[in-house]
Every structure is written in C-alpha cells, then in structure tokens.
Write a structure and sequence with these properties.
14 helices, RNaseH-like_sf, 61% helix, HAT C-terminal dimerisation domain-containing protein, 313 residues
C-alpha cells in the first residue's frame, strides 16, 4: 500500500491543476486527507497488521480446508500478534520512523493534534510526543481490536474443535486425552448423534482405533479421508461426527471469491439493482432445473399496474 502513496499523491496534484471544477475539488479533498499525519500512520499500521493475515486469507479460500487446520493457522497468527502487543513500543517505533520518511518525501511533518483537558469530541490521549500519541491513539487500540476480533471469530470454540482430532486414528490405542476429547464431542453433539448410549459409543471408538492398528490400513490425514474409510453401519456415531467435522464451515470466503457468479448476474455497467431483483436472478442462476414459463412472468408484470409497454397476455 505504501508503495502507491507517492504516485497517488503525484496523480492527485496533477488532477488538482485541471480546469474541471469537480475533478480538481475532489482531488483537493483527497490530498487534504492523505497529507494528514493520522492517515499516514494508519496506512502503515494497516500494512503491518494485514501482512500477518494475508497468508491465512489465502488459505481460508481453499475448498478442501478443514476447520481444525484453519484453527491451527489462525492460532499461530494470534500468537504472533500478541507478541507484537507485548513489544508494542519497539514495533511501533519502526512504523513511526517509516512514517517520518514518507512525510519527508511529501514535504510534511508528523504532528499530533492539540490536546485539552476537557476534550470529548475526538481522541484526547495524553502523550509527551508524537510517537507516543499515535502509538496510544491508533496502533494499540487497532492491534487490540484486531486480536479480539480474530479470536472471537475463530477461537471461540477452540476446545471443542480441537477435540475432533481424536477422530483421526494414530495407529495406536487411544490414550486418555483422546478418550476425554471424544466424550466432549458426545456431550456437545448429543442431539445430533444416534442414541446408542455412552458405553456403546466408547466401544465404537475403541473399535475405530483398532481398525487402523492393522498394517494394511493407511491412516487418514484429514476428516474427508477418515469419512471415506468409515463404515456408517459399523461406526454409526463416528460416521456422524466425521460428517460434522467435514462440513463445519471455516469461513464464507469460498462464496466470495473473485470468480463468483455475481459478476454474471450483475454486470459492471449496471449501476443499481434492487435486492429482490438480485435475489431473484441469483435463484434463477442456481436452480437452472426450474422451468420458468414466460406467460406466467408476463402475467405477473401485467397485474402490477400500468406500464409503458403493452404486454399482450
């Protein structure tokens, strides 16, 4: 992002000199915002934090990623962000020095706003210098918000999600930890699994592990592999839990990819579209097996009131 800042400023300065009033005034407003010290600091803070989430944003778009693997990746990112939080002064000093370099290139000076004792309408963080002010006013609150949101989104059910790992046999007899995790799953999903009793479910778990102690059985590496190797009649409870494990959604990234079908429904040249129309077109695109009768569509349009076009029904 920061690499594009100087070219953007140069382009806006050029547009500002145009004779077009609208373009020059908009360029002036954008330049005024970009030249603010808070904007430069915020831009560098965003680049710093988002650089850690960029890898997991790509991983989360994989169609074959199970939630346990996603949780491990996110856990690592949160750990690194908390390390940054514990060493926030040194981390922000690097950002602030870089902000000074950008400000010098733009012939600006990093300054902090005027502070008063009774200020209530804007951020009034007490600070002795510019670096301390922006560290307290921008970087620390944003970093804390970043960590809390990632934790709430992915690590809320960390304990129960990690318990699913017990469904992947290791080639040995299940240990006490794996049995304890399995019991947690039985309790949490008691309304979804067959009612065969706890003893029958535990016996099924032991048999599931025993199956993979034979040399001719390859160990499953993920939930999909385990589900394909599981007999739904012999291991009824295990099979149900594996189905849950395989279908737990990691995120909505899959439906929001750049090659989404939305661009085939709503073109770039169309500026506005009501929500009802967009939903209707999406349903038509998904359910292609439904035969839409043209006469019925015209009948509905004709009954809605007078139109410029005369529909012959």
């Amino acid at each position: 992002m920061k690499q594009m800042l100087l070219p953007v400023v140069a382009a806006l300065e050029e547009i500002q000199s145009w004779n077009c009033t609208d373009s020059s005034s908009n360029a002036f407003l954008l330049l005024s915002g970009i030249r603010q010290s808070s904007f430069i600091i915020s831009l560098l803070c965003a680049e710093k934090l988002l650089s850690y989430t960029l890898p997991i944003s790509k991983i989360l778009q994989l169609s074959d990623l199970d939630i346990s693997e996603a949780l491990n990746n996110v856990d690592g990112v949160v750990f690194v962000l908390r390390e940054i939080r514990s060493n926030v002064e040194n981390e922000f000093k690097i950002i602030f020095d870089e902000a000074n370099e950008i400000a010098n290139a733009l012939e600006l000076t990093i300054t902090m706003p005027r502070l008063t004792k009774n200020q209530t309408k804007r951020c009034n963080v007490p600070a002795e210098n510019e670096e301390e002010y922006y560290r307290r006013a921008i970087f620390i609150p944003w970093l804390d918000y970043f960590i809390n949101n990632i934790s709430d989104r992915f690590l809320k059910h960390k304990c129960i999600i990690k318990s699913f790992k017990c469904l992947l046999p290791t080639g040995n007899s299940p240990n006490q930890t794996e049995k304890s995790q399995y019991l947690k799953l039985l309790e949490f999903y008691k309304n979804d699994i067959p009612e065969n009793g706890v003893n029958a479910a535990v016996a099924e778990f032991d048999l599931w592990y025993q199956k993979f102690q034979c040399p001719n059985h390859s160990l499953p590496h993920n939930a999909i592999d385990a589900l394909n190797l599981c007999n739904d009649t012999l291991f009824e409870t295990i099979f149900t839990l594996l189905k849950i494990f395989s279908t737990l959604p990691v995120s909505t990234s899959t439906t929001e990819r750049s090659f989404s079908t939305l661009r085939r429904i709503k073109t770039y040249l169309r500026n506005t579209m009501s929500q009802n129309r967009l939903n209707g077109l999406a349903m038509l695109h998904i359910h292609r097996e439904i035969d839409v009768q043209t006469s019925e569509v015209l009948s509905v349009l004709g009954k809605k009131g007078p139109r410029r076009l005369n529909f012959i029904i």
